[in-house]
Amino acid sequence: MRKKSLKISVAFLTIVVLWVGYNIFKPAPKTIADLMESYEDPGLKIMIRSPFSGTVLVAKKGEIIFEGAYGEADSSTQTPNTIDTQFGIGSVTKQFTAMLVMQMVEKGQLKLEDTIAKYLPYLPEKKGNHITIHQLLAHTSGLPHYDALPRIGVALKDFGNTIYTPKELVQLIGKTHLVDQPGTRYHYSSFGYDILGAILEEVSGKTFAKLLKEQIVIPLGLQNTGFGSNAYVAKNLAKGYRYNEVYGWEWWTAKHGGKLTEAPFRDQSTAYAAGGMYSTVRDLWIWTEAVKSHKLLSPAMTKKMLTPNKHGYCYGWVRNWDDIIEKNTEVRLYGHGGALAGNSAFVAMYDDDTTIIYLANRSNLKAEEILHQIYLRANGLKDVYKLQGYPNRSSYETFVKAGGMNALQDYFKRLSTYSGYKVNPSNSTMRGVMKIHLEAGKTRVADSLKKVFFSSYYPSENTLNQFGYDFLHSNTPAYALDFFKENTLKHPNSPNAWDSLGEAYLVYQDYKNAVKCYTKAVALAQKLNHNALESYKENLQKAEVKVQ
Fold first, then answer.
1. 547 half-sphere exposure, CB direction, 13 A CA radius
2. What pLDDT digit, counting tens, does each position of 165-210 carry?
3. Residues with Cβ within 8 Å of residue 4, at least 6 apart in sequence
4. How is the chain split into domains, by residue range?
5. How confident is the model over 206-260, as pLDDT tens digits?
6. 243 phi and psi, to 5 degrees?
7. Closest of 413, 193, 185, 425 to residue 311, by C-alpha
8. Are 76 and 287 in contact (CB under 8 A)?
9. Distance CA 27, CA 176 (A)
10. Is the pTM value of this prediction over 0.70?
11. Domain over 90-245+263-378 is classified CATH 2.40.260.10
12. Computed over its alpha carbons, how large is the radius of gyration of the chain?
């Protein structure tokens, strides 16, 4: 029996080695069709985070040169995706919302410098009288994104399962805390576009869905685009899925090396004008052609809509997304992505009149890689224009050998020049560079990076928490405390921030300060009727036992 088992194991390992070797050394896909088939197949899965399931359309100079459908719209019934399958497009919706706003501006029904209190007088004065239509469109309103909801006692899951009228949604947004003074800097906020939706309804006297249909869908003859009800979405759209890799024997037996989980339900009223639309790649191509040919908006207003503001954000479009420019410094484009639970989308209009659109019923796809590789094949190019000089940060020694901080600064200075706006190293890069300097005993450099991060990055509550916990469980745990403290300074009304600081003190065995922080977390949570109140109480009790 042992010999037989050994033979089976050897045979199994041989098959695995051959499979891995084949996928490593097989030739790179030459055509767009080859590429997409490789993305659907597990061979190149790692490059885009999940096997591709959805539709793709590529056009050049007003002519479609490729379109294809991959995967399944419903895995339970094995219903395949087709080129006409409808998908939720997430934040690509913002392009349409921006167009509707600019149409009203062109007609004199709105002014970009108007404050939102003019149309929604029930908003708190601090927001209503100081935030303008322009700032909402450009993401410079100071409004937060969805991650601000837990701070006011609203769990994201509960938010997604609740039905809101536009007014109720705006009133909820009114309770959130500003992350900046309006007009000071770029901060992506879907809430801003939800408010724009409510303003559109207030001015027109029509629902967002009806206005969209009358002003864009019917004039362009779009057959599969709109804002649908919960029932319509459930019946007609591709089901969204999350993909998770599995390992060991599970990997061998799983389809595409992972398992699919159907995405949770989200009420359409919460996605609204920021991310609730559906469409197809063909309809979205008609849409891009209409934007470029001024079918819906005058050339002057189109130019205004596509003028970059802070961080390259126009109105509903991003100019020269740096993640794409980084891969090909020769290209320039307008684009926008969309993501819902289980769905992802992207619409990209390149300056050379190449258009790439994909819609997928998989979340967390690596959009920049998909677009880059398709663009190369659509234009017969080789991958030779990647920005060079990013220093290796696997260790302090390799980082210094590659040029260290000077090389890192030079890299992002060049990327900023190519992109047309200032691009900073990512959060993960900053965290990694801090870590290697700490591990090498270069605390002064790490401290200077931390200071820059606090003052120039305007990190969110979640980001500060992530940094704190990352250092807390690293080889330099003492470095975590400043991140948790900074979180309570920037977000003094967040029970979660105080709870996290309490946990850090607990790890450091500073039990008295842990009790103080947990007490603060409980008090804030009680005031907000926070869903995590019981958890905070339990943490406080554990800390009090330690003090005794």
1. 14
2. 999 999 999 999 999 899 999 999 999 999 999 999 999 999 999 9
3. none
4. 90-245+263-378
5. 999 999 999 999 999 999 999 999 999 999 999 999 987 776 666 666 666 778 8
6. -115, 130
7. 185
8. no
9. 52
10. yes
11. no
12. 25
